[in-house]
Amino acid sequence: MKIALLSRNSKLYSTRRLVEVARERGHEIQVIDVLRAYMSIASHKPSIHYKGEDLHGFDAVIPRIGASVTFYGAAVLRQFEMMGVYPLNESVAITRSRDKLRSLQLLARRGIGLPLTGFANKPDDIKDMIKMVGGAPLVVKLLEGTQGIGVVLAETQKAAESVIEAFMGLKANILVQEYIKEAKGADIRCFVIGGKVVAAMQRQAAAGEFRSNLHRGGTASLIRITPEERSTAVRAAKIMGLSVAGVDLLRSNHGPVVMEVNSSPGLEGIEAATGKDIAGQIIHYIETNAKQGKTKTKGHG
């Protein structure tokens, strides 16, 4: 097979592993920096050019699109879909999962457990909004933040009011969420491929930190998840429409709650913590499922 891998950095662990495994299994794979690709949007013959060459003849495309380039990356991926190339994750599913508010609303509508969440533009009563999510301590999140950036724990009512007012003064879109104290700074990353949890790890926040992101000094270890956690992760990925996803859960007193569904989950932490060949499972999934023109959306949406 001929596979396109959309990644801005060919040296990243996840990109290197996917390239290595694809080549070991006899496939041709090309890493494409999405921002360097440009498109001819024509109804009769849509095309993508890259460094002066016309990209064609691909059987599948693996999108590893960073949050900062979602808009343009999704446009390039949509162009591949219009050309009949099989996407590992579809453009519509990626943009859906990247919109934190939309994704939470979709999950809530389907009965998935979530932390109590508030969203407002200019609340007339910040105190009422804080009360709505159960009061302090609470977490304030920038809608556009990734990897724990723009996430603040407000431990008191006064701190919560100040932080919300400050973000609103900057005209930032924010979510206000209840703080799940019983999780003790730990979350669970479930790696879902094709409707199955193939690996799971627990990420523990560093001392004095409540964000468990590995980029922030968190540590990862193997964990056994419950049937309810497994089913929640699988359902969350399916609601987003993602074939491959990292679903982040917290263990709360009222069962598992979903924090986020990630459409480009990193491979390094999960492979190291579990010893599993996740890159190999992703390529195997493409081998089994890739068919010319097989997209639910055909580039629409």
Task: Describe what is shown at a glance.
With 301 residues, the chain is α+β, with helices and mostly antiparallel strands. The chain folds into three domains: 2-89, Rossmann fold (3-Layer(aba) Sandwich), CATH 3.40.50.20; 96-112 and 182-284, ATP-grasp fold, B domain (D-amino Acid Aminotransferase, Chain A, domain 1), CATH 3.30.470.20; 117-179, ATP-grasp fold, A domain (Dna Ligase, domain 1). It is built from nine helices and 16 strands.
Give a written overview of the molecule:
With 301 residues, the chain is an alpha+beta fold. The chain folds into 3 domains: 2-89, Rossmann fold; 96-112 and 182-284, ATP-grasp fold, B domain (D-amino Acid Aminotransferase, Chain A, domain 1, 2-Layer Sandwich), CATH 3.30.470.20; 117-179, Dna Ligase, domain 1 (2-Layer Sandwich), CATH 3.30.1490. The chain has helices spanning 13-24, 70-82, 91-98, 100-109, 126-132, 157-169, 227-240, 268-274, 278-289; strands spanning 2-6, 28-32, 37-40, 47-50, 53-55, 60-63, 86-87, 117-120, 138-142, 151-154, 174-178, 186-193, 196-204, 219-222, 244-252, 255-262. It has a 5-stranded antiparallel β-sheet with strand order 14-13-12-15-16, sandwiched between helices. The chain has a 4-stranded parallel β-sheet with strand order 2-1-6-7, sandwiched between helices. It has a 4-stranded antiparallel β-sheet with strand order 8-11-9-10, covered by helices on one side. Helix 2 (70-82) packs antiparallel against helix 3. It starts with a strand and ends in a 12-residue tail after the last helix. The model has no long low-confidence stretch (mean pLDDT 88).
